Amino acid sequence: MPRNLKEEVVFTAIMAGLMVFVMTAYNVTLAQGFSNGLVMAILSGYPLGLFVAIILDLLVVGPIAKRLAFKYIINDYMRKRVVLIGITISVLMVLGMVTCMSLFGIAVEGELSGSHVLATYGHTWIFNLIVALPLQLIIVGPIARGVLGKMQRATANTESAAAMNEED
């Protein structure tokens, strides 16, 4: 878990950057299939999707997911096993982000009008959840937590070296 703003920014950048890229590629490929313009369509949709995802992650979904997790789900047993806290928050984050970003995706594609908007949203939501949850739990989450762990260890090593120098 990030312990300060710098760690939160790096962790969110890695997490959102990878998740949005893969999910953008997945959704664009589903919408238009493998075509000549696929790479450009993915790259053109990525910046706006990343911006929206980071805002949602930091200001809406992240705080709500953490509040729900610590208030209703995480118990004393889970507090002793940090990995369970991470998995719990990751699952809640995926549920929240899929809910919001699926709506964002169909809005960008102009699919919010018409009589089938709920069916379109439901279809989009479930198809995104099927990919996003394992992507987060198996690939992106471990990568982001690995980088965060290395950052935290480097910070701890620097702080302990500085403390040793002060003692001398």
TrEMBL record:
<dbReference type="Pfam" id="PF11391">
    <property type="entry name" value="DUF2798"/>
</dbReference>
<protein>
    <recommendedName>
        <fullName>DUF2798 domain-containing protein</fullName>
    </recommendedName>
</protein>
<feature type="transmembrane region" description="Helical">
    <location>
        <begin position="125"/>
        <end position="144"/>
    </location>
</feature>
<keyword id="KW-0472">Membrane</keyword>
<feature type="transmembrane region" description="Helical">
    <location>
        <begin position="9"/>
        <end position="26"/>
    </location>
</feature>
<dbReference type="InterPro" id="IPR021529">
    <property type="entry name" value="DUF2798"/>
</dbReference>
<feature type="transmembrane region" description="Helical">
    <location>
        <begin position="38"/>
        <end position="61"/>
    </location>
</feature>
<keyword id="KW-0812">Transmembrane</keyword>
<keyword id="KW-1133">Transmembrane helix</keyword>
<feature type="transmembrane region" description="Helical">
    <location>
        <begin position="82"/>
        <end position="105"/>
    </location>
</feature>
